[in-house]
Structure formats: structure tokens, C-alpha cells
Amino acid sequence: MRAVVVVVLAAALGGCSKSPDSAPAPQSARPEPKPADRDVILDANQRQQANLVVEEVARRGVAQHIEVNGRLSVNENGTWHVGSITDGRIARVYVNPGDRVRKDQLLAGLHSHDIHEARAEYRKATQELTRFKTALSYAQRQRDRAHRLYELKAASLEQVEHAETEFKNAQVALENAETELGRTRQHLVEFLQVGIDDHDQESGGNHDHMADLIPVKSPADGVVLSRNVTPGSVANPGDELFVISDLSTVWMIAAVNEEDLGKVRLGMPVTVRIQAYPDRTFPGRVTKLGDQLDPATRTIPVRVELANAQGRLKPEMYATAEINAGGSAEGIFIPESAVQQVDGKPTVFVRSGADRFEARVVETGRIVDHQLEVTRGLSVGERIVTQGSFTLKSQLLKGSLSE
Prior knowledge:
Layout: E1 5-7, H1 10-13, E2 38-41, H2 44-49, E3 53-56, E4 59-74, E5 79-83, E6 88-93, E7 100-101, E8 106-111, H3 113-151, H4 157-192, H5 198-203, E9 213-217, E10 222-227, E11 234-235, E12 240-245, E13 249-257, E14 269-274, E15 277-289, E16 299-307, E17 318-335, E18 340-342, E19 345-351, E20 356-361, E21 363-368, E22 371-376, E23 383-387, H6 389-402
Antiparallel strand pairs: 1-2, 2-20, 3-23, 4-13, 4-17, 5-12, 6-8, 6-11, 7-10, 8-9, 10-12, 13-16, 14-15, 14-17, 15-16, 17-22, 18-19, 19-20, 21-22
């Protein structure tokens, strides 16, 4: 059966008075405007072909969500920029970008003259310590001998005092030698990044085939994001040799519109979607609100932290998200799919009979979680088409053309 467009004589009926027994008007979203004066009729077969879904209008609360776009980045609190502590030349490189590394794993070996100087200083300090220990032992024996001779009246008081002074000087010299040994030891340990035991002390810290190279090690478990050196390249203090990041958590840097920032709070839950995984969502939380507005986009960066135990989330991925702003918006909310633009006006189709649907102009307000607020034009309890309304719009326009 072809759809028929029926002209409703609303104006003629407008002057009719209500009977005292008339039922009260249903609750509405503010006084509704004059409805559209055209209806569309679809029989059961046409309704089935159009997959129409009809739902009852109701006032309800809708959870407030803020939709944002952004990109993923590394968690800067779990990212390390590995450099060199001295000048030198890269002799060996052991890792490549994308490799997973463990804490203290060797990344590269650096050849530097500084390590030879550090070993020489350490070896000299070790020898000096041994010499001053011997000197202190000799000074102690001389002091004890002077005291015995003085008791036997075979030595003068001046000789005893001289022996005491020599003993104290030897003690101070030994203490200074121990301090110098500690300094040179620490200097060498900083280069080698390992402890030095007694055997190393005897050999000046030169105890394996890698002794001529300063090791560059990973400061933590993570992934090699970048490698900026090759064998033979020169490294200087402050140069970034590697970037290591723990990707078990990542950040999303979301751009929040200026007018929405007041609704966002630290700790708010966020649902993130990634184009690479369209059927999955990733939960996160707001951990930082930006301090500076982008004057070009009128947005403020908001940081969201996401768990990434399985490693699916990669830095620089594009992401969309919904920030659960808490609370709810009260009013008449209908699916966005229920609204069609007819003659440039938002229009919904209200079921007014078994086969009849009224095209009604409405006024709209907020959009919350894909639900559109209707501020005027609908009443609670009315039944509207929430799916398949485009078919009704097409039939309405077709009927208008036939007129």
C-alpha cells in the first residue's frame, strides 16, 4: 500500500473548546510549538520493511559524558632518557628500537680515556693507603718504644712528644688516604656501574674483558623506544643515547573544550576507544588538568592514564574518549537517530495511530551520551520513531512533491 500524506485541519480545530471531562494534557518539555500539519501513513508491511522501532517518551536522567579526542603518549613518569656520563666513542651497541630490556641490562659499551685515568687514580690511592698503613704501624711502634725508654729514664720527654706527634700525623695521613680511596673508588664505580671488591682493589678495578669500556645500562625494565647511536659514533655528556619506557601504563592527552573544563575533575573515569581495536574499550582515569589554553583550538590538554599490561596501546595512536563527568542531566532525552531535518527544522515522527505518524517540529537542547534533549514539542507518554525515521522523512517529502 502506497504511503499517503494526509492534511490535518489543525487550524479549524484550534477554536474548539475543551469539554469539562477532557483528560489533562500529558507532561511535556515546556509548551510545545504548533506541530507540523502533515502525517505519514505506513501499513504493517511497509513498517516491517523500514525496520521501524517505536519507543515511549519519558523524562529521565542521562549520565553526563564529555566526548574528547586525543592521542596516546608514553607515561613520562616511567620513561628514561639514557645518556653518557663522560666523553667517549661508542664501541658496541647491544639493543635495537622495540627490544624489551631489563633493569641494568647492557645497552652499549663506551670507550673513554676517563676510565683509564679513573683506574690509575684508584690504583694509586690503593697503594697510598697501603703505604700509610705501614707508616702508621711504624709510628705506633716508635711511640711505644719512646714511652718504655722514658720510663727507664733512657729517653727524654722531648723524644716522647716527638714520637706522639709522628704517630698522630700518621693517623691523619691514613685517614686522608682512606678518604681519597673512597673518592676514587666511587668515581670508578660510576664509570663501571658495578661494585668493586677486594680483588678488584688489587687490580685497580680491571677484572674482565669489558674493563676498557664504560657500560651504558638500562635504568629500568621497559622497551627501547629510540636508539640514537651506532658503533663508532661520539658521545658527550648530555647526549641522549637511548629512550627507555615502561609501557605497562600509557597516557592519553585529550583536548577538552574550554566550556567543558569546569565539569572535569581529577580521578574521573574515562572510557577510551582506539581505531585499531574498534570492538574494545580501555578504562582510564583523569590524572592531570592542563594549565594553558590553546588559543587556536580553544581546548585544554587533559591527561588520562591507562593500564596497558598486554601492550596493545602504542604511543602516538589516535584515540577518542568519553569522560564520565558524574551526575545526570534531567529532561526528555531521545536518541539522536530519532531526529530528522525537514525543511531545516529538527523533526520527530510521533505515532498517532496504528498506521499513522505525525511529523512534528521540536526544539532541542543538550546532547548527552548520544541522547538529544527535547526542550519543546514532545510530551511524556507519546510514542516516537527512534529507528527508521529516515524512511518516514522520505515518504513525507515524496508526498509534498506530489502535491
